[in-house]
Design a protein that fits this description.
EC number: 6.3.2.4
Pfam families: Dala_Dala_lig_C, Dala_Dala_lig_N
Number of helices: 13
Helix content: 25-40%
GO molecular function, one term: ligase activity
Shape: globular
Family: Belongs to the D-alanine--D-alanine ligase family.
Function: Cell wall formation.
Length: about 325
């Protein structure tokens, strides 16, 4: 058995990604139990804070996705309660969760990220849809990629290959957020690199290459078994592997992240990695990328999660 006492895994919440969060939470809890850790799963509700105060856990492992778990709110509450948790500081979460702000920081650090514009829904109302879309396509050449400025799991995201596809993509995006991020669609191999820190500093796990049957790694492709082919480790040469792993660790450090993150990127034909976004609460389901990366590194997930929890508990 682990020397840890009780660990609380947070799963659920009220975001669009609730179902994914529940699946992640169950997988993490099962893995931790397999590593000898006492685990309790709790949802985000009015009973949570009294329960944490009445019977304080050694640590909390949030597996909340979307705004519920990635915008820094729950991290801020846990910090107020002085409860150790696996994850980044509230400020770092807020920065990473807002994709335009994260891209600004990444570009300022000298890393490549596609050109973009962030446009609130109100701008279309104030200035006129046609005029705004004409300005976008004049400044950013097709193809484009549209996604919510804040959110995850590719909900509301769409590739735009023709001018005629752009209005529908904007409508779909605004169903999930009030601001749309429109960026150049970089062609190349889709890569995800997870970063973990179990006390010796952030290190990249083997990169995972993603090949969706539909050509787009959307919500269905992410969470439906058989719709996407994964290569773990990615089919990269040593130079390419180092480039994508270095970018992920640099992104993790640039954004001030802690303990765990996953960077999504495109590796173009010239071998340049392009930062797309970073996840401070990466999916941990049976089809998620961090578990695949851990498997490629011959890491036992239960041991990895236990090491993360023990590390954050030791900082108390």
């Amino acid at each position: 058995m682990s020397d840890l006492g009780r660990v609380v895994v947070l799963a659920g919440g009220l975001s669009h990604e609730r179902d994914v969060s529940i699946r992640s939470g169950r997988r993490v809890a099962d893995a931790l139990r397999g590593a000898g850790v006492e685990v309790q799963i709790r949802d985000i509700d009015a009973a949570l804070l009294p329960a944490l105060l009445a019977d304080r856990p050694d640590a909390v492992f949030p597996t909340l996705h979307g705004a519920t778990g990635e915008d820094g709110a729950i991290q801020g509450i846990l910090a107020l309660l002085d409860v150790p948790y696996v994850g980044s500081s509230p400020a770092a979460c807020r920065l990473a969760f807002d994709k335009p702000s994260a891209k600004e920081a990444i570009r300022a650090a000298g890393l490549a990220t596609p050109d973009w514009v962030a446009i609130p829904k109100t701008t279309f109302r104030d200035l006129g849809t046609q005029a705004v879309l004409d300005a976008v396509t004049a400044a950013l050449p097709l193809p484009l990629f549209v996604k919510p400025a804040r959110g995850g799991s590719s909900l509301g995201a769409a590739a735009v290959r023709t001018r005629e596809e752009l209005p529908a993509a904007m409508v779909a995006c605004f169903a999930y957020d009030e601001t749309a991020l429109i960026e150049r669609h970089i062609t190349g191999r889709e890569i995800a690199v997870s970063v973990v820190d179990t006390g010796d500093g952030p290190r990249a796990l083997p990169a995972v290459e993603i090949v969706a049957d539909s050509g787009i790694y959307d919500y269905a492709a992410r969470y439906t078994a058989g719709m996407t082919e994964f290569f773990a480790p990615a089919r990269l040469d040593a130079t390419e592997m180092k480039a994508v792993e270095d970018l992920a660790v640099q992104a993790h450090n640039t954004l001030g992240l802690s303990w765990i993150s996953r960077t999504d990127l495109i590796l173009d034909d010239a071998g340049t990695p392009w930062f797309l976004e970073v996840n401070v609460a990466p999916g941990l389901t049976e089809t998620s990328l961090l578990p695949l990366a851990a498997g490629a590194a011959d890491l036992d997930l239960g041991v990895l999660y236990r090491d993360l929890v023990e590390t954050v508990a030791a900082t108390k």
